[in-house]
Amino acid sequence: MLEAVRLVQSVDDSENQQQIENSEKSALVVYVHPFALQRDIDTGLGIGTTPTALIAHGIDTTIVEIDPTVYDFATRYFNLPSNHTPVIEDAIAFVDRNRRKKKYEYIIHDVFTGGAEPIDLFTVDFLTGLKQMLTVDGVIAINYAGDLHLPSARTIILTILTVFPQCRLFRESPAPATPPQTDFINLVLFCRLTPSAFTFRQPIKADFLNTQARKHHLLPRHEVDPATFLDKGNGKGEQLVRKNNTYLLRESQLSGARGHWAVMRSVVPDAVWENW
């Protein structure tokens, strides 16, 4: 779904405005376990699925990844193309140094949480740095993985909605008909700098890069009303995440990590985790 940053367009875009040449665009991808820039920026590399797609579409992509081993494995074993700009560095330092120097049409904020949010990458300070690196008509896609029922989720999402004036939120799967006790899910926020409404163009064959998975999952479908989070406040005003108060979310992090562990133990048998 993160690759749908390429599909974003203003509601009043004409047909001719929809097909801007990808070669004219750049992306930044920011990872905690990789970090990438597209003139697109991507963070949290993993095996490099998102930056690989951006590169395939001709986008000048920069990848920021803090862990050199992750980057090495993505390149050596998962065919991450070589025609990109790699940055093996802490994302915070990279953004702080370049926030007033570089601009990207697309930014992908895709940090691996492991059930515990890397809170420093969701602060007003860090997100404002990414905001300064977006072009006027650029798009940032922020992947948040966590239990949406926890206070930390509301605080982080509220912080994102405060920094960026126009966002749309999408779950990776439909919300349960009956609210569960926990709701651990991937939530992607697509945001722009301008307050005007935006939509997603219908993908064409070339967008799918010959994969069935993209046919089913590229276009965001399960939208969440931002008021779902804003309405859960206590009426006393919500505190935003800032670099000097990240300690306030540590307790929720522990609950999120436990929930994530429970989910992962349902994916494969216990013996796999215990032995490998």
How far apart the termini lie comes to: 29 Å
Uncertain stretches: 14-19, 33-44
Shape: globular
Helix and strand succession?
Answer: EHEEEHEHEHEHEHEEEHEHHH
Strand content: 15-25%
Structural class: alpha/beta
Helix content: 25-40%
Oligomer description = single chain
Radius of gyration: 18 Å
Overview of this structure, please?
The chain is of the alpha/beta class. The chain contains 10 helices and 12 strands. Strand 3 and strand 4 form a beta hairpin. The protein is globular and about 45 Å long. Strands 2, 3, 4, 5, 6, 7, 8, 9, 10 and 12 form a 10-stranded mixed β-sheet that branches. Strands 1-11 form a two-stranded antiparallel sheet.
What's the short version?
With 276 residues, the protein is of the alpha/beta class. Helices cover 30% and strands 24% of the residues.
List keywords for this structure.
276 residues; alpha/beta; ten-stranded mixed sheet; two-stranded antiparallel sheet; globular
Q: What is the topology?
A:
Blueprint: E1 8-10, H1 15-18, E2 26-30, E3 35-37, E4 40-43, H2 49-56, E5 60-65, H3 68-77, E6 85-88, H4 91-98, E7 104-109, H5 124-132, E8 134-147, H6 151-163, E9 166-171, E10 184-192, E11 198-200, H7 212-217, E12 222-224, H8 227-230, H9 250-265, H10 270-275
Parallel strand pairs: 2-7, 4-7, 5-6, 7-8
Antiparallel strand pairs: 1-11, 3-4, 3-5, 8-10, 9-10, 9-12
